[in-house]
Amino acid sequence: MRAKTSAVTNRGRAAVAGTFLQYGLPAALALVFVLLAGGLQRSFLNYGTELLILALIAMAWNLIGGFGGQFSLGHSVFVGIGGYTVAVLFDETGLPFPVVLLAAGVLSALAGVILGYPMLRLRGPYFAIGTLGIALAVTSWMLNWSFTKASQAYSLPARDMLRLPQQFQLAVVLAAAVLIIVTAIVKSPLGLRLVALRDDERGAASLGVRRVRTLLPVWAVSGFITGLTGALVAFQQGSLTPAFAFNPSWVLDAIVICVVGGSGTLYGPLVGAVLVFVLRQWTTDFSDWATLIEAVVVLLVVRLVPGGVWGVCESAVAAIRRRVRRGPPDRVASNRVEEEVMANV
Amino acid sequence: MKLPKNRLMVAAALTVAAGFVLSGCASGGSGASTSASGGPIVIGSTLPLTGSLQAFGTSLQTGYRKAVDEVNAAGGLDVGGSKRQVTLDIQDNASDADKASSQARNLVLSDGAVALLGPATPQLTIPVSIAADQAQVPLISTITPLEAWKGGSSDGWKYAWDVFFDEDQMTDTQYQTADLVSTNKKVALFTDQEEDGVVMGGLWSSKASEFGYDIAYQAQFPVGNANFSSQVAEAKASGAEVVIAQVIPPDGIALLKEMKAQSYVPKLVFLEKAGNTGGYPKLSDGLAEGTLAANWFAKGMGLPDEDSFISEYASQLGGVNSDLGTVVYGYSIAKMLLDAISSAGSTDPDAINDAIAKISGDYPLGSVAFGDDHTSATVAVQTQWVGEDQVLVLDTQGKAANPIVTPTAGLQ
Amino acid sequence: MEVIVNGLLTGGLYPATALGLSVVFGTLRMVNLAHGELLMVGAYLTSVLVVALGGDPLLLAIPAALILGLLAYPLQRFVLTPVMVRNADAPVTATFGVSIALQSILLLVFTSNPRSLNAPYATAQLEVLGVGVRVSLLIATAIALAMVFGVHLLLTRTRFGSRVRAAANDADAAGLVGIDVKHTFAMVLGLAAAVAAMGGALLALSYSASPSGGMTWLVTAFTVVVIGGLGSVRGTLVGALLVGLVQTLASRFIGAQYSDVVVFGLLIAILLIRPEGLFTKARRA
After folding, report:
1. In the list A242, C27, C180, C248, which could disulfide-bond A142, CB 3.0-4.6 Å?
2. Is this complex scored with an ipTM above 0.90?
């Protein structure tokens, strides 16, 4: 589809430039931050890493939950698997860092496929509870498994922990990579099938979109990303317990961020992560009331701004563009159709 | 004509990115320079002021504040010849390990803390200790059993220190106390799956024979378990006259209710962890009356300043109980830290760290001297709930103190 | 034998704790993540009334239930229903927000200490079929049974019930026929909350309640409801007994530390084999 509009027309050139920006901008920004990491203020690196971890899990969840329409309550299991993979591999083997990181992602994805494959037949709340059940079952199991020290703290050896600038660099690189991957998936034929499946399963089926075959790779990628984030969490925290690594709060945070930012959009999770992070920093001083304030804010956003903040931005931009455009009605109409399509990505 | 959307996006992204970069490049945190140059000294602490560990957090806060206020009232802390005020920067981690770790880092990096005072329990203290070691800033913690804490570091702590009892000595006290009463030497063990439950459960099992006791029944269960019907039935059937339990407060109440319902009245019930909740007999509608719990403070222990702490805090804390002990311990480690800063003569974290290593002397929690593993052990005693107070029944020497009320009053 | 009786009685308490969830899901198709907190708030409300007025906790649980029901009505009407119509995911997040809000309120007002309800029969025992059983669990089972059948009759035999079922089946059509859907939905949550309050009081009587304990009970309630069938009130009863039985058997024969794994395994198995539960008509969508 893109090939037909490329290069030949102004609109085509703009579309190509848009694509270039969507992929190039995150990469460029990541490069900038990676290079500057050594010179940035340490508190900034600290905040940045925490913010990016939130954004990463949110983006991963958004892939299957927002774009895929499969509401997962079990994503915390991937954080835990990713984190513990790192802890165990560093402790038991001498594998180098990149291998360990990759293993965290791969094992999570694998676990996701094995555990999640039967679940993908389920829809809506059944899928939600099913994934929650899996996460809880795994957590209970981990509490008993002596190989991972059961409920005792499993700490990373000091030599294997990352220093703050490196944590930040890793977080930045991961975030940019994930954004690019998610963009690529969403814009690919797989992505179109995914969204079609979400919006109208019967209609999509009549066009040949197969449910599990479409959902499974997306679910696996989502698990992979979350596993990598779990590894990053392990590097940052330095010590894991099942209660911490598998805590439902990981997935619940991701859901809150996606809803606040805009679920099913490319940049909603990022915007949401920034907003939630800022809100939490701001309410630290009102300790008793902090969680209550956050809960009220979440309720307000869910009630009043259903598309999330990014959704509102997009509508605003589209509305502005409509007002800016002048011209013969038919060109306006076709512009609008294409804008609506582009705006939803 | 390019689509304005792209331009907008690029402009927005670049502005945001530039903003981040600029804010990141701004020269060093104001907090840090204040601490270094002669302004107030910032000591940070992330505490569980809300959430399940609230009682520990608020009591530690009271203790820390008391020490800092004392120093400030005397004109400030004497550091390298000049007297400087001390600022205590406390943040609430809501009993969450992730928040605790993050706040510990923020306190050092953004607020310029030169040293930290710890939270309570291994689940919070270990992540904070790791953060302290990473930030290379000294941290003194308490209300964290030593073995569990040591297990949280694979090659030893560098900047983190812990002052509390050792599980090994603590798990002797139940048997030593049981020796003071005549029983059939049969023990029923109830432990949950939290860290300390597992560690202590293991120690109690392995020590039983050396003290001449027999573990007639052992039950392990997840935290939050409410239904103890089959476990209590089996424990009762085993004829155990001594029950040792390690449970969280709500589970403790459920366990006691089940025991009462099944008319299981052991001679001694040790309710560890749950029993360290202030006012537990009242919370459990009297069921916990007469239960025992290991403690770190009690009247008659022979600690310095025992009576003055009791008269100052007992009424507001509802009696002489673990919360009071936590205040004493919090005050003590804060005092230790302040003394270390003073003797280091500077606010350089490494100098303070070295000074902590050299601490040796008596504080309200007892005598302190750190070993190479960065721990200093205090002695656990056994206390029994009598009304609103936890009364000393086994002293620091392992000898009898006040008489033990047996069998367990609340279950009769 | 003793294990079985105890298991059934443990499970007997569960319908009281799970009924509210089942009703909400059956009619509103909403996963109510705040359900655990509703149980806890019910327990605390009852406790407050007991302290203020003195008297039997179960009797005072009734006004507590009414109060909670009344509070839940505007919540559903003005917050949750409008959210429900927009998209399928948002209500879960909204109920999660409510859950956190309720938890923080409980912590602010009552601190983190557990609370328990007491009565002479709370810790009494009775001999049934040669097995010692807790009187409180017998009472809880009786009340739970009464509530289950009461709600079942309400939903199947009264006009209100038909309105609820109509609105649940097809909200738009129900609206066209003149049913005030917003009001009906709000009544449903009010009913669920009232039932939850009684459930919370029952569990505080037999066990205890704490501000952070909601999550554990929520999970048990979900297991019960899924096994019995989301939306089937009678299914909740069977699901509860089954879960209680499995839990106690697992606890006795494998060890309590694995009982959770077994129960969740059962939940997953049911979802994979017969997701609509044991009592809902099979739906092949």
Report:
1. A242
2. no
